[in-house]
Amino acid sequence: METTSIYILLDPDTKEPRYVGKSDKPNIRYKQHLSNLKSRSIKTCWIKSLILKGKKPILEVIEVISINDWQKAECYYIEEYRNLGANLTNMSDGGLGGLSGKNQKRIQVIKRKLGKMYSDAKKANNKRLERYVGSRLLAVAKSNPSIVPKWWMEIQLP
Predict the structure, then answer these.
(1) pLDDT value of position 100
(2) Among 155, 45, 40, 148, which Cα is nearest to 93's?
(3) Angle at Cα 59 formed by Cα 56 and Cα 61, nearest 5°?
(4) pTM above the 0.70 mark?
(5) Per residue in 74-109, pLDDT tens?
(6) How many angstroms separate the CA atoms of 48 and 156, rounded?
(7) Does residue 148 contact residue 108 with C-beta atoms inside 8 Å?
(8) Taking phi first (over 0 means left), then psi (-120 to 50 degrees means alpha), and beta for anything else, what does residue 88 get?
(9) What are the chain's domains?
(10) Which of 137, 74, 83, 81 is nearest to 111 (CA)?
(11) Distance (Å, rounded) from C-alpha 23 to C-alpha 5?
C-alpha cells in the first residue's frame, strides 16, 4: 500500500501547532519550508520571523496514511486544530495539495477583497457592485471550484 504523511509544524517556544500539511517525504518538505521563503503567505512570514530569532519550527508527523485518504485526513486535522483554538497559518481548509502561487493569490483575493466588497455591497444595497463582485466570484469558481469557499457557492446573484 502506498502511503503519505500528514505533518504539523509546531512553534518551537509554545509547541502550538501552526501549520498542517501533507508530504510523501516530510523531511524534504520541511527543508523546503525553511528554504523557500519568497512567498508572502502567513506561514512563510511566521517561519521567517522564527529564523530571524535563530529558531526553526518543529516538524512532527502525526499520521501515516494511505495515499488515497490524505485529503480527508488533512482537512480533518486542520478543522480539529482550529476547533481546539490553534492559530494555524494554513490558507485553506486542506485537501488541495500544494497550491501554485497563482491559486494562492486567488484565494487571498477571494477571501479578502471580493469577500469584503460583496458584504459591503450588500450592506449598502449596491446592486451594481454586488453583481460585479458576484460575477468575479463565479468566474473564479468556474476556473477552479476547489478554491472557492463552499458558503460562497450559495450566493444568489440578483
Answers:
(1) 46
(2) 148
(3) 175
(4) no
(5) 888 998 998 899 999 887 776 666 544 555 555 555
(6) 41
(7) no
(8) beta
(9) 3-91 (3.40.1440), 102-154 (no CATH)
(10) 137
(11) 5
